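tool_call: predict_structure(chain=1)
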Amino acid sequence: DALLLQLTNTSAYYTYLLLLLKSVVYFAIITFSLLRGMAACCNGERS
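tool_result:
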């Protein structure tokens, strides 16, 4: 039972870590896109 409990805890931990990592990646992409879009507007460029 202890092994099963440890396996469940490890699985939950990695699942949480994966979701957190995915959120960070999405946030970075969105932020990069917004900043690039704002920079293009400020520079008066349309690409």
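agent: The chain has one helix and no strands. Proceeding to next step.
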